[in-house]
Q: What sequence folds into this?
């Protein structure tokens, strides 16, 4: 059984690499760069084997802000929450691993937050590249999760990455407009809520690293997420 699963994963990886080689995404999604997260994804494989998703499942997935949300089950109750977050996630590797992160089938909703493609660093993606990666992930989800609403959680303005704010906002504006034009695709706006009166990121929402949220920051996230779910008619 274990050998059969291994063969299936190898075949899936080969199919994906052939597909990528014929796609404009090939220059962004490189196997040598995304395999760094293989151990995290193997952990998800183990969880998915014993925790199947169904129509009651609210999947919260993405980067470290999702992984570190220790109170997510309590905060989003009475929704039935499945948590799949890994530190350092980028849209490139999330695209590569979508089929293993997100189980096939119809769920109540998928909440997606990936915030490491634009950080103010040398290897940042452009806002338009971020947008195209998001669309490619949505296409994959649509194929495997028909009828499941997808929510993009806006990238939070953080003190540590404020230098990249203009690029982050441009990427989110592109994603917002795309969500507004498509059924069952929603944009959860959070930007203004995390700014202080001077229009700068409010440090009281963040841990000492000025990047990840503290309980106060997660409480605000919870409020915005639940409000958007309710407005979309998605009830527990």
A:
């Amino acid at each position: 059984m274990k050998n059969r699963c291994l063969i299936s994963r190898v075949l899936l990886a080969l199919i994906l690499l052939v597909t990528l080689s014929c796609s404009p995404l090939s220059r962004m999604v490189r196997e040598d760069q995304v395999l760094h997260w293989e151990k995290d994804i193997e952990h998800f494989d183990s969880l998915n084997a014993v925790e199947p998703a169904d129509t009651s499942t609210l999947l919260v997935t993405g980067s470290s802000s999702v992984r570190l949300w220790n109170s997510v089950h309590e905060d989003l109750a009475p929704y039935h929450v499945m948590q799949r977050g890994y530190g350092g996630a980028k849209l490139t590797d999330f695209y590569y691993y979508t089929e293993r992160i997100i189980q096939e089938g119809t769920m109540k909703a998928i909440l997606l937050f990936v915030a490491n493609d634009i950080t103010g660093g040398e290897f940042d993606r452009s806002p338009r590249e971020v947008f195209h990666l998001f669309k490619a992930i949505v296409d994959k989800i649509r194929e495997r999760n028909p009828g499941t609403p997808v929510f993009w959680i806006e990238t939070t303005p953080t003190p540590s990455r404020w230098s990249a704010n203009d690029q982050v906002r441009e990427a989110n504006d592109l994603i917002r407009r795309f969500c507004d034009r498509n059924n069952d695709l929603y944009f959860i706006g959070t930007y203004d809520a995390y700014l202080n009166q001077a229009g700068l990121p409010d440090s009281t929402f963040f841990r000492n690293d000025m990047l990840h949220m503290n309980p106060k920051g997660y409480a605000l996230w919870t409020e915005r997420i639940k409000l958007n779910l309710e407005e979309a008619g998605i009830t527990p």
